[in-house]
Structure formats: C-alpha cells, structure tokens
Design a protein that fits this description.
By secondary structure, this protein is mostly helical. It has six helices and no strands.
Length: about 140
C-alpha cells in the first residue's frame, strides 16, 4: 500500500466516522440551546442547583439514562450550567453519562460476568459519582 493510498484510506475512514459524530453532536447542541432558551431558570435551579443532596443524585440518574454519546453531553451540561445548575450537579451529569457506556460493552459484560456483577458495578459507580459530585460541590 502506497503512502497516497494510505492517506486516502484515512481520509475516507475519517469522513465515514464524521457521518455518525456530526449529526449526534448537532442534535445535542440543538437540545442544549433549546434548553438554554426555553427551560425557565427557576426550574433548572430548583431541580438542578438548589439542594445538592437532591440535584446531584438526580443529575447522576439523568446522565445514566441519557441516550446520547458522551461527547454530546457537554453542550447540554453547559446550557444547564448557564441556567444555574451547580458544578457538582454538572459533574454528576457528565460522570453519570459514562456509567452504562455503550450497549455492546454492557452486553459483553452481562455475557461474561452476569447480572450480579453488572448490577454491582452499576450501583457502586452510581454511588461513587454521587459522592464525587458532592465532593466537587464542596471543593468548587
């Protein structure tokens, strides 16, 4: 394989990957901007900022169930931060998003280690993200 063909292969493969990433990032940015303009600050602050003992676990659960790629969480988190969500809550949202990961990884984990290991990891990761959010809230 020549250098030119390698470069062309890399460019073609990169463009193919961008077909997946760009639309997901666009949709996440659209959601983030929509939240920024239409979500009342009072709701964002009450739900995601006033009481860290409520908002951090809530943000962790929201992060876990968000059906978007990891990189797409940031525009949504930023818009919530601009609306008044605390830094610990944003930490929990972003960190909670990585707990379940991708369906293929979770299926492999279930196949090789079973439900007990999967649920144990889920519970421990959730607890540590909540604890990390509270620590971030206290330190920042």
């Amino acid at each position: 394989m020549t250098v030119k063909s390698k470069i062309l292969y890399i460019l073609a493969d990169s463009l193919k990957e961008m077909k997946t990433i760009v639309p997901a990032f666009f949709i996440a940015t659209l959601i983030g901007v929509t939240l920024e303009f239409y979500l009342p600050s009072e709701i964002a602050f009450v739900v995601l900022g006033e009481n860290p003992f409520l908002s951090i676990p809530l943000a962790t659960v929201i992060g876990i169930i968000l059906p978007i790629p990891r990189y797409a969480t940031y525009p949504i988190a930023f818009s919530l931060f601009k609306k008044g969500a605390s830094i610990g809550t944003i930490f929990a949202l972003i960190s909670g998003e990585v707990i379940l990961g991708s369906p293929d990884r979770d299926i492999m984990e279930l196949k090789y280690f079973g439900w007990k290991a999967f649920l144990t990891r889920l519970a421990l990761c959730t607890a540590f993200v909540v604890l990390g959010g509270l620590v971030a809230e206290a330190l920042l």
